[in-house]
Specification:
The chain is an alpha/beta fold. Helices cover 37% and strands 22% of the residues. It folds into two domains: 193 residues, Spore Coat Polysaccharide Biosynthesis Protein SpsA, Chain A, CATH 3.90.550; 46 residues. Strands 1, 2, 3, 4, 5, 6, 7, 8 and 9 form a nine-stranded mixed beta sheet that branches. The termini are far apart.
């Protein structure tokens, strides 16, 4: 099975980073390279990294231009065939996650992106499983996808002009090249708390979502589908947020 480079991006994540590292260190998969990119934290994050230094292949701490810049930096340092971005606070679902996923590698070895399922943790410990998505219209969470390093570098990584949908832009570029570039594997990969940038109401990022379509040669009719899909997602997010707060 192939070497996997796991990249964790963190900034002032002293209270959440240890759980992420522990989920990586516990993996039964043999060939893992672990890289941590810190954005110049001031809250004790560096102390946490140093506690696990023997389990980390490479780590850097310096200011960056945002999460996608930090993720690109990690990818540039990686040597694995596959890249996996598991940022601070995110955790692999269990110790056998990578082994269960890559035992099926023969099915997706020609794909550029292989992806599975995730779990979202909301307040009051409610967990929702997000299953296979439509990769044409909806972003696959980066916590659920493995990207061929060669393809990532060939595409110059994530576009830094996006704040939240850089991974969707990258995914869309792969989809336009060929639908076969993306391959779904029915394995739950990671769990994360719904408190990050992407947890904000969808309408905050609707313009950026539509811009992904425009920048990736989507027709006018398809842009309308992007818009109405985005509006429906925004409404669903609003309703779920209200329900889960009760």
């Amino acid at each position: 099975m192939s070497k996997v480079s796991i990249i964790t991006v963190v900034y002032n994540g002293a209270t959440s980073l240890a759980n992420t590292i522990e989920s990586v260190v516990a993996q039964t998969y043999a060939d893992i390279e672990y890289i941590i990119i810190d954005g110049g934290s001031t809250d004790g994050t560096i102390d946490v990294i140093r506690q696990y230094e023997k389990s980390v292949s490479i780590w850097r701490s310096e200011k960056d231009k945002g999460v996608y810049d930090a993720m690109n930096k990690g990818a540039a340092l990686a040597t694995g065939e596959w890249l996996f971005f598991l940022n601070s606070g995110d955790c692999l679902i269990d110790k056998d996650t990578l082994r269960n996923f890559f035992r099926q590698e023969s099915l997706f070895q020609n794909a550029s992106i292989a992806y599975g399922d995730i779990q979202l943790t909301y307040p009051k410990h409610i967990v929702l499983k997000q299953c296979e998505r439509n990769p044409k219209y909806e972003s696959i969470c980066h916590q659920a996808q493995f990207i061929k390093r060669s393809y990532f570098l060939e595409q110059n990584g994530f576009n830094l002009s996006y704040k939240i949908y850089g991974d969707f832009d990258f995914q869309r570029r792969a989809y336009l090249k060929s639908k076969d570039q993306l391959y779904y594997v029915p394995v739950v990969i990671a769990t994360y708390e719904n408190v990050g940038l992407s947890s904000k109401p969808f309408y905050h990022y609707l313009k950026e979502y539509i811009r992904v379509g425009k920048n990736n040669h989507v027709s006018g009719a398809e842009l309308l589908r992007y818009y109405f899909y985005g509006v429906s997602m925004s409404a669903l997010t609003f309703v779920l947020t209200r329900i889960l707060k009760k």
